[in-house]
Structure formats: C-alpha cells, structure tokens
Amino acid sequence: MGLFAEIAGAVVAVEGLKKLDPGAGLLTEGLAALAGYKGAEALEEHLEKKPETDPSQPA
C-alpha cells in the first residue's frame, strides 16, 4: 500500500483532531498530519516484518 496508507493516516489524524478541537490552528493540524503519516508508516513496517523464528517449532 505504501504511500496511500501513509496519506490516509495523515488525513484520518487531521479529521480526528478537527472532531476533538474544531478551532485547532494550522500548526496543530500540520503536526497531526505528520503524526498520522509517521504512525501509519510505522504500523505498515511492523506488519510487514516476518517473524524470525517459526512459532510452531519448540525452542
């Protein structure tokens, strides 16, 4: 998904901020967009990682 997921994360974060604080300024919205973008990026990286060991094998 890549860039689409990260942009979607930014949009969702800004819309959530607007629901919580309708009077939020441009700087606050920008910070929310950045946090949403980076959060979606981190989540996508975490989900793409494959386990290094097979959980069905005994240790």
Write the layout of secondary structure elements.
Elements: H1 3-20, H2 26-48
Helix pairs in contact: 1-2
Describe it.
- α1 (3-20) crosses α2 (26-48).
- The protein has 2 helices and no strands.
- It has helices at residues 3-20, 26-48.
- It is 69% helix and 0% strand.
List keywords for this structure.
mainly alpha, 59 residues
Mean model confidence by pLDDT: 88
Major sheet: size, sense and barrel closure?
none
Distance linking N and C termini? 34 Å
Number of strands: 0
Radius of gyration: 16 Å
Assign a percent range to the helix content.
55-70%
Shape, per Cα inertia axes: elongated
Give a quick summary of the entry.
The chain contains 2 helices and no strands.
